[in-house]
């Protein structure tokens, strides 16, 4: 292989145990598509009343999340499971101070639908049909645009009507803070700056309603409402219960990351800096704003840690405990053991390109593993609950990289370094056993419990081991020391103690290996 191409692939696929999983969640410039807050505010007010009347009954919320890998109708373009695991690693950290533990609910959903993948806002009914009723449903798509306009790329949105979340694939790959933000919406939290969401109107038209602009709205502020919404004031005794997000421990904030200032006579400069403001902004009462720059429900970028306020946490807990969320609040406690790396693996021996056994050392507290094998054509993905996997669908004479991720329901921060793999052109077939003239295996497919018949026509007698191997690499049936006689010889394999599925039949001798896929119905 060309050394330049090899170096490029290593650079692109440079997985390690630190990987994206251990990055701080970032809040990139872009917008949330959750614009209609009507239902959110209705739930918020109910939750405020519930929180005021009822003490928190549980300290920790275990939040089931069904991650749906959405792709084109032909199954392509889906996000890699390792990227979802990296996102979960960051999400767990971001929700930790809120005493919320997200966990993977019964594996990943698989959705092959180009309409949902590219245009989810127009595919609401199809999305709802794919939901799991017992989990927070997160659909990972190529686009998340809602057509609401303004402010840049839409990174994700929560649908109050459908009660599901859409997140762009890139936000999951980057392990950004978008998902935590949308979960906040799902659990009844509005934007901290509600009313100042970016619109399609032009601020130079002097129409109050775009993100804050000194030229339009004044500094000190010269308006008291924005698109009919009361503007929140700095004074906590003024209107914090009825303005913006209706919460009093999230300070007044006017969506400054999309604001415009007239600094040093240079119009239309952005007012926000990295996790801050470049000048003071004064409200209509003459008080200087001091936003909570690192609030998850805001838009500021560049902060070290993003958190929810105490009142936001109370309301998310109240929402989870409400009758609306009874399907989520089942009392189930997932595996909370921390998966501890590193993952120790070796490049497997490649005797045949279509029968490669990948093995690695078991990882503490891991319930499952993802094996991802990548080349220029795409990614082969395998999920297994054992520390080995037999792979039968690679191409001959190809160069690959493979990596392994270890995880359980709540812990997903451990991924191995990528290692190279070169396949050969050798295919497992009857030709590898030179003394065999013919092999017939039947019935195939076979009904569970029936006997699998193997008729072997051999020119010489030989000793063999016959085994059935599941697709996760486990040997489920092994017949040792089988003496295969010359001419016609029949071996019967019982299938009553295995499960339905696809298996690899192997006949191994000192002369070679014969392999064939078997389907048990």
Compose a concise summary of this entry:
Helix content is 16%, strand content 29%.
Give the topology, please:
Elements: H1 3-12, E1 31-32, H2 38-53, E2 61-71, H3 81-96, E3 100-104, E4 109-112, H4 114-118, H5 124-129, E5 136-141, E6 154-159, E7 164-168, H6 169-173, H7 178-186, H8 214-217, E8 225-226, E9 229-230, E10 261-263, E11 266-269, E12 272-273, E13 276-277, H9 310-321, E14 356-359, E15 368-375, E16 378-384, E17 388-391, E18 399-407, E19 414-415, E20 419-422, E21 436-442, E22 451-458, E23 462-470, E24 475-484, E25 487-494, E26 501-509, E27 512-520
Parallel strand pairs: 1-6, 2-3, 2-4, 2-5, 5-7
Antiparallel strand pairs: 6-7, 8-9, 10-11, 12-13, 14-17, 15-16, 15-18, 18-19, 18-20, 21-22, 22-25, 23-24, 23-26, 26-27
Characterise the protein shown here.
With 521 residues, this protein is of the alpha+beta class. 16% of the residues lie in helices and 29% in strands. The protein has nine helices and 27 strands. α2 (38-53) crosses α9. The longest helix has 16 residues, at 38-53. Mean pLDDT is 86; it is low at 1-24 and 200-209.
């Amino acid at each position: 292989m060309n050394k330049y191409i090899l170096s490029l692939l290593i650079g692109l696929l440079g997985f390690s145990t630190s990987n994206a999983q251990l990055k701080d969640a970032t809040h990139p410039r872009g917008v949330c598509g959750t614009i209609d807050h009507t239902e959110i505010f209705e739930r918020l007010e109910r939750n405020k009343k519930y929180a005021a009347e009822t003490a928190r009954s549980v300290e920790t919320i275990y939040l089931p999340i069904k991650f749906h890998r959405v792709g084109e109708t032909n199954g392509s373009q889906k996000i890699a499971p390792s990227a979802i695991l990296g996102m979960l690693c960051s999400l767990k950290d971001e929700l930790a101070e809120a005493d919320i533990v997200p966990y993977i609910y019964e594996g990943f959903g698989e959705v092959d639908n180009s309409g949902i993948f590219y245009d989810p806002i127009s595919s609401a009914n199809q999305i709802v049909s794919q939901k799991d009723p017992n989990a927070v449903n997160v659909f990972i798509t190529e686009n998340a645009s809602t057509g609401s306009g303004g402010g840049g790329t839409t990174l994700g949105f929560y649908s109050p009507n459908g009660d599901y979340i859409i997140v762009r694939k890139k936000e999951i790959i980057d392990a950004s803070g978008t998902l935590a933000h949308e979960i906040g919406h799902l659990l009844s939290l509005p934007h901290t700056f509600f009313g100042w969401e970016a619109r399609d109107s032009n601020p130079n038209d002097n129409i109050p309603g775009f993100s804050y602009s000194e030229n339009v709205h004044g500094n000190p502020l010269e308006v008291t409402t924005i698109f009919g919404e009361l503007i929140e004031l700095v004074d906590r005794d003024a209107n914090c219960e009825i303005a913006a997000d209706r919460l009093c421990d999230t300070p007044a904030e006017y969506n400054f990351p999309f604001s415009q200032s007239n600094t040093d006579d240079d119009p239309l400069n952005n007012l926000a800096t990295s996790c801050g403001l470049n000048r003071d902004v004064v409200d209509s009462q003459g008080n200087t704003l001091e936003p909570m720059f690192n609030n998850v429900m805001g838009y500021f970028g560049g902060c070290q840690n993003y958190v929810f306020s105490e009142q936001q946490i109370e309301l998310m807990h109240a929402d989870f405990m409400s009758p609306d969320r009874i399907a989520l609040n089942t009392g189930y406690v997932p595996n909370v053991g921390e998966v501890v790396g590193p993952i120790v693996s070796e490049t497997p021996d490649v005797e045949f390109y279509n029968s490669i056994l990948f093995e690695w050392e078991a990882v503490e507290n891991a319930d499952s593993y993802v094996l991802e094998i990548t080349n220029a054509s795409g990614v082969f993905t395998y999920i297994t609950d054992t520390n080995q996997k037999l792979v039968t669908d690679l191409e001959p004479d190809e160069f690959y990289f493979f990596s392994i991720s270890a995880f359980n329901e709540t812990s997903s921060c451990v991924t191995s370094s990528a290692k190279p793999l070169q396949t050969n052109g050798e295919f497992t077939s009857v030709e590898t056993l030179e003394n065999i003239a013919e092999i017939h295996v039947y019935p195939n497919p076979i009904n569970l419990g029936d006997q699998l018949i193997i008729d072997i026509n051999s020119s010489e007698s030989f000793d063999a081991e016959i085994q059935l191997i599941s697709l996760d690499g486990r040997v489920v049936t092994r017949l040792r020391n089988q003496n295969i006689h010359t001419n016609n010889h029949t071996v019967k394999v019982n299938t009553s103690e295995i499960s339905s599925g696809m298996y690899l039949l192997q006949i191994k001798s000192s002369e070679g290996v014969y392999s064939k896929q078997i389907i048990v119905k």
